[in-house]
Specification:
Four copies of one chain form a homotetramer.
Chain A lengths: L5 H4 L15 H7 L4 H18 L4 E6 L4 H14 L5 E4 L1 H12 L5 E2 L10 H6 L2 E4 L2 E4 H17 L4 E2 L1 H15 L7 H8 L3 E2 L7 H13 L6 E2 L1 H14 L3 E6 L2 H16 L7 E8 L13 H6 L3 E10 L2 H15 L10 H4 L9
């Protein structure tokens, strides 16, 4: 049961699914007349299509888990390109360790089946290979990604940044140095002026770069990441674009963060309506009371989500997301949808008043 | 099916379990000779006991989900009082919306069984009642909590703060104004100099206060929350106290954040060993590849967690945590364990060098 | 929140998905290069395709849960028609309460979303409406189904029957009286001589009919259902057709029953190899040690399933089954696969010898 | 990573928890004032206590999964001894492969942690060791158990038996040959005249014995297992003892079977009330529409379970069952509860009339 060479372990790359080439509309429509998760998925796809057709509705995509390494990157990049999303709230891993990482020219790899058992993790560590369930990463590549975020931090004027501002700089870096992947969420978002927020931005590869940056700067002026500013900026977007819908993949902090802006707007004295649409794809349990699996009806008691168009889909994301996005893509509502370029809204943050 | 008055809906309070008065040792020991989750739980309790007996081992408690509102507050407060934990990494909800909230004199309430159905959430919203599965909160009380965090922000010198620094100020506020609950994690941690980190600090009641603070300050100097500094500080603790163990309740960002400091220390040029001990209580699935349910063996491939003493317990926290902590409490290793007062280590952050 | 009339509640019928009209091959192939459940599903589809191409491999389909009421009936009926399955082991509900029920002319209905909450179940009972999560049944129709199974029992020669024999009589009943649904598993299996086994046959609508039959017969001669004979018959099929593959939807007794025939053959003195192929679609947990979620590797320790071609897919069946069966259908291996007509093998059961 | 000798692998025995020696009342009472699963568990324990105090209420215990091998045998044996249960409906594994197996003098063993990975299952098969997640069985011992059930079948008058009748003969066998375990569910049930039903009786070790018996008898008279008779007998118990409560551990066929007797009684023309009490401990999902995780409210739409006293507890059984049964045991209601000796009610089955 010894492992092969590192190069052999890292030889089969994860390929990102291309939902523009697969017509899933008949499948998803059929599912709508079935029961259980099939019907829920079909309704979620329909609600997403409604969001896209609702004039002036801003769509916020929330990402948790390891979605990019799992092969969903092209789906999200396509959503940006096709004006199917106006802002993204994500954990750091999807944006930095996985998307920006691939944009630097690195890849994720398919793990041999036996590696899932956990019995070889010590051996993988010796080889500098990191494992995400059935997926492998070259840790040496990841160190380059950490280092690149440090370079970016080092190059910036020392002051507090929202994660959104920092990620925009990462997009500018790709624009300047070239994006070495076929597509990139960070790069597409930069070009389309779609803001990306990571409410726990130090909890990823960028965190390593920022810690190195701050450590080197010592007592001197340095870049800091102001998570309150993130929340403020996303709230302002809600204030300026009151009709909103949430498309949540996984739960956790991105879900809570995006839901909370309704209340934050109210705290600032604005009269912002609840999110009009909300769909969530998750495998989380409702029974432990944690937010990741809490129903969208529950969010309604908090005044965050309206109940007319909400749908939970209990499924692992790699199965459900291609069907939901593929359905909405094929239905084509995005063709008539204008680009929102929400990042530009935030350039003039200071002029906002209640 | 109409609802009763608000006062009647909010009449039965959640009471926090007191594990110092219940001897669970025979139960947990018996479980160790059974199968499945019982045996896992028993081993996790034993590993926690080993952490407490390992001279110089620093223990980091990670909290995700709604644990304080669920009645586990006294368990965690007791862990601080009895020197059974040296640092805490948490989502914001447990620390601010739930613990600090109760310390301000507010309570959580038991929801009637039918409210779980979600069929009454619109009615609850009308009454300003927020629901967490089977638990209720008076939203008007929560607004006071938001406002108090704003007051604290307003009172501080404008500069970037780690969440740890800000939460320490919340503890100082309780010390000064009085803690109106029988016990409080924030207050006990303040007194015992146990640092608390919230890597996504704006994602909670404090976020509302901070957004209000920053909005009012406009272009002027203001308090910001530097999540990179959080990561830097926790990494320094690892550097200064190299033997460590993790006690994780739930997964998400607290789990990832605390695991990552091993790698961050290495990035800074320090030779920090993996976490020597790690236990996690969770209901999350391994099968979606997300971190919350990923095995601790997998973390070993990343060089974060050693595999000799690690144990996952697949259980909802309210069932497992009282047994694990109760067992270790009754076994009494804490009696001979010195107070670590890690917060004091961080006062002199700048002198660290590789 | 009062409910509408019964006729209105039972107005939208469940429609069965037709996988012959949807080409899912590009989707399933793309999933094979992703991670997590997508890759697992793709591999399961490939293993099913291999079973179909393996000359002489007998395929046993195991069904647990409420799959027919959920809209998967046409998938399974098509598998029989297209010689993609050689025997079926099922819980009673799918075969009698749901498939035979529809063949008698009755339907399943889509429940309004709020009915899932459970808050209206008392009202449904008053209306003689039974609920399966999001699906409704007219209990008066179900009583007709019970009564029909009693009629069949009354018409038979009194002796012990295997469930396989009794279900064959149900197929003969449909052949004679006409099948009132577009398709029926029981009827297709009758015509194609595909045996169907229900190891807990009294645990369904047929149980009500049989209890009524036995009650009326009192001390006199009566029909009985010999579950040992079921096991004996399925074992004989393994003996006569040694290369086998399992396609399991859900776990429970059908899974265990079909796995066990390898050991039973050995107990009878035959040298039967393990099941060569095995795939399972389930949402069950591995962590409680119960069989439904136990891995197929574990079955290998029992000498039941070979490990070269086995794959678990953690997904709710309505999402995964159309993709797996649709893939194999479109790949077309069934076109060259001969009909096995295994029921005819069992007519001469008594001549078997070791 | 080679495995040690078989004797070493099978050296640490599973020990059954003794809930009579551990006072869990303060723990369970505290849990009732918490949230989530703790509160649910506490309410389930209270409902079980109410069942025991309700004069004339018959209690049916339903068992699915691998509970006896997991160390819960003594809990169930104690329930029989202390008149805390009046009938048992189980899968075959718990009763035959695990309880009767231990009564023959065999044991279950604790598996080394690494064996759970599935990476050693081929090696275990070579050693004739069967694995249930983290538990091991000597397959040679199991073959003796199969053979003993065959001996029992060979010794009986050839006719259809309910599983209840056959299991009673297994109890008589232990009474005659001696029970070689400290306690046995089958043996205690025999002595206390508590009937045990296995609706899928051939799906276990007894199935192997019965197949061998039937194979050897060829066309001659033989023992058969009439599952319809099982259902008829349990229905008669409901008719004769109309107030009933269900204590369900796991779901599956035992749950459905026991719930269905309310409807079966009605089919026979008796006016039987719904089960007055119902509690279920399970890890199953509600979201796949399968019965194992379906709510007890849903069972109410079928007219099977009353909604006033029902409670689901989402927990793995080894954690929750000792607390629920331990609580009720310590509360002591069983002391004043008469023995029901339901098996004796069934001796005169034929005299029943509507």
């Amino acid at each position: 049961m010894t492992l092969p060479e590192k190069t052999q372990l890292l030889s089969r790359t994860i390929e990102h699914i291309d939902i523009t080439r697969i017509n899933v509309v008949p499948l998803v429509e059929s599912m709508g007349r079935m029961s259980f998760s099939a019907r829920d998925l079909s309704r979620a796809a329909d609600i997403y299509d409604r969001m896209l057709r609702d004039d002036g509705c801003g769509i916020i995509l929330c990402l948790a888990g390891s979605l990019v390494s799992a092969g969903l990157k092209k789906v999200f990049a396509e959503m940006i390109r096709c004006r199917m999303v106006d802002a993204i709230v994500s954990n750091g891993a999807n944006i930095v360790d996985q998307d920006f990482f691939e944009a630097l020219g690195f890849r994720h790899y398919i793990a041999e089946e036996r590696l899932r058992s956990g019995m070889h993790d010590d051996a993988l560590r010796e080889l500098h290979i990191d494992r995400i369930y059935d997926t492998l990463i070259d840790e040496d590549d990841l160190r380059v990604c950490d280092e690149t975020t440090r370079e970016i931090a080092d190059s910036l004027e020392p002051r507090p940044y929202s994660s959104r501002e920092f990620i925009r700089e990462m997009g500018a870096y790709l624009q300047e140095h070239g994006c070495k992947a076929d597509e990139s969420i960070v790069h597409e978002a930069f070009k389309a002026e779609v803001p990306i927020f990571c409410p726990a931005f130090s909890d990823c590869s960028a965190g390593f770069g920022l810690v190195a940056h701050q450590h080197a700067r010592g007592d001197g002026p340095k870049v800091s990441i102001d998570s309150a500013k993130d929340f403020y900026e996303l709230t302002l977007l809600k204030v300026k674009n009151t009709t909103t819908g949430l498309f949540m993949v996984g739960g956790g902090i991105p879900k809570n963060f995006a839901q909370d802006i309704v209340v934050a707007a109210e705290v600032l004295g604005f009269d912002a309506p609840m999110h009009k649409y909300a769909i969530q794809v998750t495998v989380a349990d409702v029974r432990d009371g944690a937010l990741s699996g809490s129903t969208l009806k529950e969010a309604s008691s908090w005044g965050k989500v309206d109940t007319a168009f909400e749908q939970m889909v209990f499924s692992e994301a790699t199965l459900a997301v291609p069907l939901i996005v593929g359905y909405a893509y094929q239905k084509g509502a995005w063709r008539d949808r204008p680009a929102s370029r929400w990042s530009t809204l935030l350039e003039s943050v200071r002029e906002v008043s209640a």
